Amino acid sequence: MSYVSENTVTTIDVTDPLYCNPNDVVSTLKITPILTEVEKYIPWKRGMQLALSSKRKLGFVTGAVEKSKRDNVIIEAWLAANSLVISWILQNVSEPIKMAILYTQSAKEIWKLLKGKYLVSNGARKYKLNKDSYECNPNRKPVTDYYIQLRTEICAFLDAMQKHKEDARLFQFLNGLDKTFGIEECNTAYVTPAKCG
Predict the structure, then answer these.
(1) Cα dihedral angle (116, 50, 37, 153), rounded to 10 degrees?
(2) Gyration radius from the chain CA atoms
(3) Burial class (CB in 10 A: 0-12, 13-18, 19+), 75
(4) Quick one: pLDDT band at residue 20, thresholds 50, 70, 90?
(5) Element (H, E) at 95
(6) Is 8 helix (H, G, I), strand (E, B) or coil?
(7) Using an 8 Å Cβ cutoff, are 64 and 23 in contact?
């Protein structure tokens, strides 16, 4: 697809994540079941990742496809593709969740909000995951079902533990800052933490 802008031609290849196929409408990406307040986040997230990847749009939620600052045509293409991804996410969540994320500007930010809400690393969540994994009984269900359920619960528990470790490292770093740093520096560090090695 080619666009003409101020005597220059901008081409977006059909394999580019910015390319929106005319057949890619809101109803073309449907995950079952949709994310609700009681549904498990991990299977929904995996379904969305697979579906978005098949449309070459996963980079919009991971942050790999960033908004350009150099070309108005590319910016417009990014806005269109980002809006399409947001529409797909909105179609695959319950009404209360939809109302909570409806006015968020980027698919990446929505993805981060949903992860923060459903993949929390608090004690109650860890206890529930631990309890659920012990309640799985292979005698009452086929071994494959038992394995899949146990693996999903363990992965969720490990993700929660990793988040807890990252938070602990961040707090350790912030606590070690010299008192000459003000509250603004601490807030900035907390909002955009760097990955600790």
Answers:
(1) -80
(2) 21
(3) middle
(4) confident
(5) helix 95-101
(6) strand
(7) no
- Cα 82 from Cα 11, distance rounded (Å): 18
Q: How far apart are CA 121 and CA 183, in angstroms?
A: 25
What pTM value is reported for the model? 0.60
- Residue 81 neighbours by CB distance under 10 Å: 24
Q: What percent of the chain has pLDDT over 90?
A: 29
Q: Classify burial at 29, counting beta carbons within 10 Å of its beta carbon; exposed 0-12, middle 13-18, buried 19 or more.
A: buried
What does the pLDDT look like over 36-72, one tens digit per residue? 875 678 889 999 999 999 999 999 999 999 998 888 8
Total residue length of the chain: 197
Tell me how far the alpha carbon of residue 186 is from its chain's centroid.
25
Q: What gap in Å lies between CA 61 and CA 84, rounded to an integer?
A: 12
Domain coordinates in residue numbering, the chain: 2-118, 123-191
For 72-95, what is each residue's pLDDT tens digit? 888 999 999 999 999 999 999 999
- CB-based burial label for 123 (10 Å; 0-12, 13-18, 19+): exposed
Neighbours of 167 (CB within 10 A): 13
133-137: average pLDDT: 63
